[in-house]
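Hey,
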Amino acid sequence: MIKKIVIALFLGLCFIRTTEAAVNIAVIAPKSGDFSDAARDLIDGVRIAVSEINQQGGLLGQRINLIEADDQCDNRFNVSMAQMMAVNSSAEDKMNLVIGPYCHNEFAHVAEIYAKAQIMQIIPLPLDGENLAITQSGLLKISGSSLAQADEFFDYYKLKFNTQNTALVYDSRLRFAVEIAASVQKKFAEDGLSSRLTSYNLANYGKDYAQLAREILLDNRIVYILGDSRATAKLTREIGGVKNGIAIFTDRYGLREDYTHIVDAKQEGLYFLGLENLKDNPHFAEILVQLRLQGKEPKGLGVYGYLSVNLWKNLVIKSKSFDYKKITSVAASEKISLPWGDIKFNNGNPDKSAPFGVYGFRDGEYTQVY
């Protein structure tokens, strides 16, 4: 069965030959399955950027071939895809850039494979501390640390809910949850607001979400949940079922399809934390106007897919070459302009993380409220 899957993946990575010279890039994200909604936006943003380059005559005189690979957020698929891309070394088949994978399964192993094959890899989504610490030549993590989520939550809390008691719910079995929870606790402590924050460890409650909800609702009006998708959904439903008027915050990128099956995601008082849409960012406004004139507009993670392709394009132009070593040398030595500032990459990590935003359900859809 595994062999059949690998063969199918190989066939899925094939692309149409053209008579023109071409350069190959790939975006790896789940086009099906639990994370497909957010990942679809990412893929669309990459498509828009590639189409724009080709419409402008290509890059250094060469058109871009885009390969869309559906990894289903499965670590076997991630590794298999990386291995197959790595063996394509001919001028026609060589992969120059990989954007992703969306899910960070086997992240260290996959990054090593791409680096050895001299394939640039750009990660659009923020990463936890362990994955940020992974360094490889040619690996760029444009969004930086997921801890920026904690900063955004705290800033919005101070703006809107400063006098309210807050329940911080995290799962100690999940590394990202522990890291973000610790950062939130530190923020409250540094601002003299520790008395406003009570922490709850999901691991101590088993599956008794009703009991945890009752404890939370005794003295809290704000709830920030950091757990896996199903646990987050079930606790959210229990809180909503016990008492209304509670503001619940969750991590957008940790939610699977099962979340919306359990929770009415269109309810008032439910907020998601995710990367900023950048629509109001003056450094992205000109680009957005140009795209809108073409009838295109990246949404959600599409903005970061678009930025990933254009980051690579600018590195190619600066190095005047598609040569891996020249491009990685430029990436390591020069400042790179992104909408949130001029970024210097240190071992692939930006010195300034991408900003997070707060999203709430307004006027029939989720929009950025802060």
